[in-house]
Structure formats: C-alpha cells, structure tokens
Design a protein that fits this description.
The complex is a heterotrimer of chains A (about 170), B (about 100) and C (about 550). By secondary structure, chain A is an alpha/beta fold. Chain A contains five helices and seven strands; from the N terminus they run βββαββαβαβαα. In chain A, helix 3 packs across helix 4. Chain A is globular, with a radius of gyration of 17 Å. Helices cover about 30% and strands about 20% of the residues of chain B. Chain B has three helices and four strands; from the N terminus they run E-E-E-H-E-H-H. A four-stranded antiparallel sheet of chain B has the order 3-2-1-4, with helices on both faces. The N and C termini of chain B lie close together (about 5 Å). In chain C, the strands form four sheets. In chain C, strands 1-2-5-4-13 form a five-stranded antiparallel sheet. In chain C, helix 3 runs antiparallel to helix 13, helix 7 crosses helix 8 and helix 11 packs across helix 12. The chains are: A alpha/beta (about 170), B alpha+beta (about 100), C alpha+beta (about 550). At the A-C interface, helix 2, helix 3 and helix 5 of A face helix 1, helix 2, helix 5, helix 6 and helix 10 of C.
C-alpha cells in the first residue's frame, strides 16, 4: 500500500505551483519581535499591537476570528495565514473571500489540514499559498487548476461563471 | 467471545471473519476469543485497501448479542427484513443461532 | 424541463472525472478511508449496513421519461433491480459497488443527471412542489428558480464545508406542498418577490422557519442566499453535530438579529458578481413552458361511464388526481405505497412502465414527490382510464394518494447505518391493517410519517401522526407524535403517550383513528382538523391498550 498523502510533510506551494521556502516566523504571544523577521502575529496580538508597529507583518487567523477586525491595519499586513484545524471546518473559505472583497491584495496562505482535494475551493476563494500535505504539491495545484473549466458562481478568482459566458455579461 | 465484521472495499458487501478469512455469509462467522478478536481487528484496521470499517460484535455468555446492538447486527447478518412483518421479525429476534457463543 | 448546454455537460463530465480519480486513489490505497469518506459523501456515496448506497440527485424532483429509463437500466445492471425514492425527491440504490460508481456516473451524465451534493455538509438538492407548472393554485412556477439555485450551489467554493448539511425548498403556490417551513431556507416565490424563511428543520431539535425577508427580487435571490449562507458558515456551531444546523444559530441569535447580519453581509457583497443577470433567468425560464397540450376532446360521458363500471378506477380518480390549471387535464399521483410493500420502492420494470406511460400520456414528464410517489404532472382527463389500466398491470394503481396508507418512511434500520429502529416493516404492518380501501376512504386525508431515528428523514415531526423509532436498551421502540403538519399551516407534532413496541403500533393507530371517526363533526372534518379542535389529550389515551 502506498503512503497516505496526509502523512507527507507539508510543503509550501504557491497558486502558480512554485514550491517556496517559508521565511516567516510565527510568534507566540510572549515572544518579542527581534531582527529575525518577518513575523506572523497571532490574531489577538495583531489587533493589540499592529497600531503601534512599523513595517509589515503576517497575521494568523483562526476559524472563529472575525477577519474584518484587521481592516484598519491592513496596510501593514502582507501575509494572512488562514488556519484549517480540520478539513471539515470551512470557515476559512469565507475568511479568504471577505479579505479579497475588502481589497486585500497580499498573500493568503492556507495552513493546517490542507489536502489536495481542497485546493480547488481555496483557489477560487482567493488563497494564494498552500502549506499542503501531498507527495506532489505542484502537481496538486495543476490538478486543481485544470480539473474544471466550467464554473457556476462568481468568486474571488477571475473565473467567469457560466451565466456570464452565456450572455457575454 | 466476539465476531469480527467489516465491509469489502470494492463492493461494500458485509463480511464476516471465519477465523481464516472472510465470508459474505454470517453463518460462517467464527466465534473468536477476545484476544484473537482484538489481534485480528488490529490487523484488518490497517488493511484499508481490502476492507472498510471493521469492528467487533461482542457476544454475551447466554449467546445473545449485547442488547444495544441486537437488532442492527441481526439485520446486518440477515439482510433487510422487508417482506417480513415486524411481528414475525420480533419473534425471529429471539433466534440467536448466528450469534450464539 | 431544463436542458443542459455545453457548459452544463462539461461541468458534469469534469466533476465525474474528479470523482473517478478519487475512487481510483482510494482503491490504490493512496487515500485512506478517513480521507475518502467526505469525498465520496460529496458525491452521494454512503457505506450503509449492507453495502454502498448511491443517492442520485433528481433536481427539484423533475424527471424525463428518458431519465427514468436510465435509472431502470442502472437498477438492473448495477444493483438489485429496484430503487428507492426519497423524501428529498432523490433516488437511492442500495447495493452499488464502489468500483462501478465512475461507470454509473458516466451513464447518468448521458441523460443529464449526477449524484453531486446529495450528501455532505453542503447545499443539497433544492426541493419543490411536485405539481409545479401544473397546479391550479400556483401563482409562480418555482422550477426555474430551483434550477437557478442548483447551478449557483454546484461546487460552491465557499459553501462546501458548511457546519452541517443545508436544505432549501421552494414553493410558488397557495398550498405549500414543499414543506418550506421545515427547511434550512424555505422560499415562497410570489409575483412581488420572494418570502424567505430561515431556520426551519426537523431532527433532534425541530423548529419552524422564521420569515426574515419579503419581496426579495428574483434578480437578487442568489446574492441574498450567498449572504445568508456566509453568516451561517461563519457563525454556525461546529462543536456539536446536533447543534450545527442553521436553526440552532437562528434561534440562538434570534431571527431579527440573524436577519440583520444577513442584510449587513448582503450590503458588502458585489451583487453584480454573484447575481445571474435577468437574461440568464429568462433563459432558464424558457425551458419550462407548458407542454403542447393535446387538443383531443374530453369525452366526459365515456369518462363517467368508466368510473361507474370500474369502482377501483373511480376511487383512483378521486384520490390520485390533482386539480390542473387546465380543466381538461389533471396531475396524477402514481402511488409507490402498495399495501404491504416498502414505501417509495420501484422495480426496474415499474420504472420502465412509468417512463412508457409518461411518453404515451404525460408529454414525457415525471416528478418525484417528497411523499415518495411519482407524479405525472400533465395528463389529459380523456386518457385517464387507459393510463390507469397500464399502471394497474404492474401494481402501480394503488388508490391511496394522501390517505393513511400513503405513508412516508425512511429506509430505517433495514438499510441505514444511522438508524435506531426499522421503519419499513412497521409501515408494512400499518398498511396491512388499513388494507381495506373503503375504510381508508372513510378515514380520508391522514398523513403518517415514520423515521427510524431522530434525524427525521421520514419527517415524523410533520406527520398528522408521526412515528419515531428509538432504541431502548437494544429493543426497538416507537414514540408516537400527534398534530404535525407540513403544509402552509405548518406545525410540529408532539410526542404523545409512552413509547410502544412495533407490534403495538398498528393497533394503537387504529384506536386513534376509530376515535377520530367517532368524534368528527362530519366527513369534511379531517383527522388533523379534529385533532386541532379536540386537542391531543383526547387522543392520547387511545394510544394505549385499554386497561
């Protein structure tokens, strides 16, 4: 029996299929920011500290966090990590869509229980990076991007829904 | 004593462990002693390309199933009871030949 | 009915390829069962007590004769020669091989069908009035809107991992035959816009839906639904599977607060990106014209003579036809509730006959009702006797539409891995007890609904008499509910009396019914009316054997 995909060490892959190193450090709430950045702040800490911080940061958003609270500081954020503690928890999809609807253009990264079969949905919701558990992350991105050519809804990506193509709307 | 049951991955049919292999007929199910049953269960849990959802059905000393699972396991072993009346079936529930230890 | 264009065909083909790939990865061992399970469920494939069950979507219950023939073929080729029609207007096959599913889906795609989103925590098949487009009391045809929703909800990227499943029902008639107030979202399409009800449902914590919006323009339906689903996706509970449906969120927030949040979310959305333009709605509506009604004259004399000569036919006409918008047509209910047989089952041979009579007498169109019957929506009255005789030849002429033996029953513990008790044998026993057609006619309209567990697939909460199977220390027991109804006066039945054994249920129901016959003012007072007038307590005692 071949190895289960979920047992693969997660690798970071972009929506273009490039495997990239993770240069970010997730700070615990006690850690002080030093010279080893860039840093990913926890959600509550980001709300508390971002106002007084200079530079650019990442923020970790858990499923229950209301991402709209970050909007006042959005200029200082270049990475938002959306956590999927389990693949069944779909709140992160709404988080990403809201960010894109609000005009956020930085990276949105899916972390946690991220498997190849979710990538299609994540791409459509506006995610741009994926810490995916798969033997072939680049292949998984290609598969997710080529599996469907027809879409029934407008979402965060540039895909035109069937109704738009039907009516050239 | 316990029975080991599972479903075959490819067609989903209910299987019963005979002590040496699997049978689709519950009448061939082996009454396994607890230790053997646990060993077999642990083995088959890892053989996911062959069977799905293996589990043990405990038997009580009087040969009846543990109450909680009685009707479910009876139906699982005998197939849907459609066509028989509930009356007839409730009589049949007392029938324990498959599940006797 | 709606006809796929190249986009729809491509979509289903691509989706089937994805699922075929997932099946192959499972068979090779690349996917574990834990990983595969949510993927197969997203495609309606369950592992039940005896084998895999495949639930095939029948969008809003509408079928062509060609599709029914295909379903018969699948039953014959891949299953055990029969299928089971469900309360979600879908069809289930009970012994499907995993390895066969890609082939079956290919066959379904040939007739514009699929099994997409018939399970899983996503937006399920939208259900509607089985008489849509035909009923005399209809003001808005709900089918185009159900199709608009079907397309929008298909692999919706944001709403595929909701807290729990999500069911939408839609009606466009004065009488609610779609049970909209016991759905997550119930829509009443009216000429002036949609009434939106939210938070209805059955299961462990039954609720009736609350009206949160009126006059919603059809052109903005999708963006409003998107907002409603987003609020649910974000704030619906995920810590407890029994509290994860939207009804719990709506009752925790209060309907007004939920409505406010939806409105707020709706205002943030770029509606033009979500709402299909009017041209698309007009396009979809164009697929639901009236059939080319026959100009065969209705021979009233011959029709009445046939009824006088054949009492069984007369009874069938009385019980199994429904008022059509044209005087010379009716809608016909083909009962899948023959006395003593499992509710909702049809054999391959019966499906073939239904397809044939649909071509011959009903413009090729059929429906599945949530009561688990098959409907021929448009039949010329002049053809009724010929139709009846062909149905009668294959045991499809049971004249019990809406009567006590026209029961809803879930598959129960005979098939379902979740059930606590059996439903079908109980339905069989009850129908045997009321086998006398004259008696059932005398009793009149009475809906019995049976669920084998608290999940309420058998709609027991909204049966005039509801029956809920429970497991009491390994023994099947049945709780009786009285006073539920799913229509425009929707109400939830209340558990009445103590739980009964399977053997005791039919007699208990008979005592209740006899008491009703004794107490009713006259024949026009239906069971549910008498129950509401007299109160449940009046009938509670009759449930138990007199001491």
């Amino acid at each position: 029996m071949s190895q289960l995909n979920s047992s693969h060490t997660p690798q970071l892959v972009t929506s273009d299929g490039d495997i990239i190193p993770d240069g970010w450090t997730l700070l615990s709430d006690e850690d002080t920011t030093g010279v080893d950045g860039p840093y990913v702040l926890g959600f509550d800490r980001a709300l508390r500290d971002l106002d007084g911080l200079n530079g650019h940061y990442g923020v970790r958003v858990n499923p229950a966090d209301d991402v709209r609270l970050l909007l006042p500081f959005i200029e200082k954020i270049t990475l938002i990590e959306v956590a999927f503690p389990g693949y069944r928890d779909g709140r992160g999809y709404s988080t990403a869509r809201i960010l894109r609807e609000e005009g956020y253009t930085g990276a949105i990264r899916a972390v946690g229980d991220v498997l190849r079969d979710q990538l299609f949905h994540m791409l459509r919701c506006g995610f741009s990076e994926f810490l995916v558990k798969d033997s072939d992350p680049a292949g998984a991105i290609t598969a997710a991007k080529t599996r469907f050519t027809t879409f029934y809804q407008g979402a965060a990506d540039a895909k035109r829904p069937a109704w738009a193509l039907r009516h050239n709307a | 004593m316990k029975l080991l049951t599972a479903n075959r991955l490819t067609d989903g049919l209910t299987l019963w462990h005979t002590g040496t292999g699997w049978s689709e007929d519950a009448a061939n199910a082996a009454r396994l002693d607890d230790e053997q049953a646990e060993t077999l269960l642990a083995e088959w849990k890892t053989r996911e390309t062959e069977v799905v959802a293996p589990y043990l059905i405990p038997l009580t000393s009087d040969g009846n199933l543990v109450q909680r699972e009685q009707v479910r396991e009876f139906v699982r072993a005998n197939g849907p009871t459609i066509g028989q009346t509930a009356d007839a079936l409730s009589q049949a529930h007392g029938r324990a030949d498959i599940f006797e230890s | 009915m709606y006809v796929y264009d190249s986009f729809d065909h491509t979509f289903v083909r691509e989706r089937n390829a994805e699922f075929a790939d997932q099946v192959a990865r499972r068979l090779s061992g690349e996917l574990s069962e834990d990983q595969f399970k949510p993927l197969r469920l997203m495609n309606g494939l369950y592992l039940q007590l005896h084998a895999y069950m495949l639930r095939i979507a029948v969008p809003y219950g509408v079928l062509s004769s060609k599709q029914v023939r295909k379903l018969a073929h699948i039953a014959r080729t891949y299953d055990r020669d029969f299928g089971h029609f469900t309360t979600r207007q879908n069809l289930q096959f009970n012994w499907i091989k995993l390895a066969d599913t890609p082939k079956i889906l290919e066959e379904l795609a040939e007739v514009e069908m699929h099994a997409l989103q018939t399970s899983g925590n996503c937006i399920r098949n939208t259900t509607t009035d089985q008489f849509a487009g035909a009923a005399r009391d209809e003001h808005t045809d709900p089918r185009p809107w159900a199709e608009v929703i079907r397309q929008w909800s298909s692999i919706h990227p944001e709403f595929t991992f909701l807290p729990r499943k999500f069911k939408i029902a839609i009606t466009g008639a004065t009488k609610d035959r779609a049970a909209i107030r016991v759905h997550d979202i119930g829509l009443h399409a009216k000429p002036e816009g949609f009434d939106v009800y939210v938070g209805g449902g059955m299961g462990r914590t039954p609720h009736l839906g609350h009206l949160i919006k009126s006059g919603l323009p059809g052109e903005q339906l999708l963006s409003y639904l998107e907002a409603a689903l987003r609020v649910y996706n974000r704030y619906g509970r995920r810590d407890n599977i029994y509290k994860a449906r939207i009804k719990i969120l709506v009752s925790a927030l209060g309907p007004e607060e939920y409505a406010r949040q939806v409105e707020e979310e709706w205002n943030t959305l770029d509606k033009a990106k979500i709402d299909a333009p009017s041209a698309e709605i007009v396009r979809i509506q164009s697929f639901f014209p009236n059939p080319a009604f026959t100009d065969k004259a209705f021979d009233r004399v011959a029709f009445e003579r046939a009824q006088l000569a054949d009492a069984a036919f007369a009874r069938w006409v009385k019980n199994n036809t429904h008022a059509h918008k044209r005087d010379d047509h009716v809608s016909v209910t083909i009962s899948l509730k023959p006395v003593g047989l499992p509710p909702g089952d049809a054999s391959s041979a019966q499906m073939d006959v239904m397809a044939d009579v649909a071509d011959q007498f009903a413009y090729g169109e059929l429906r599945v009702s949530h009561e688990q019957n098959i409907i021929l929506p448009h039949v010329a009255k002049t053809d009724l006797y010929d139709l009846y005789r062909q149905l009668d030849a294959v045991n499809l002429s049971t004249a019990n539409g809406g009567k006590i033996t026209d029961m809803i029953a879930c598959p129960g513990l005979d098939y379902c891995a979740l059930a606590n008790a059996r439903s079908i044998p109980l339905a069989q026993d009850i129908s045997q007890r009321f086998a006398d057609a004259e008696l059932t006619d005398k009793i009149g309209d009475l809906q019995i609904k049976i669920s084998g567990c608290i999940n309420a697939c058998g709609h027991h909460h909204v049966g005039h008499i509801g029956i809920l199977g429970v497991d009491k220390q390994g023994i099947e027991f049945y709780q009786i509910l009285l006073g539920g109804r799913a229509d425009e006066k929707a109400a939830l039945g209340q558990i009445t009396g103590k739980g009964l054994s399977a053997e005791a249920v039919p007699a208990a129901i008979e005592r209740v019914v006899q008491l009703y016959l004794k107490l009713r003012t006259d024949e026009s007072e239906r069971f549910i009316d008498a129950l509401e007038r007299l109160g449940r307590d009046t009938f509670a005692e009759a449930l138990h054997e007199p001491a």
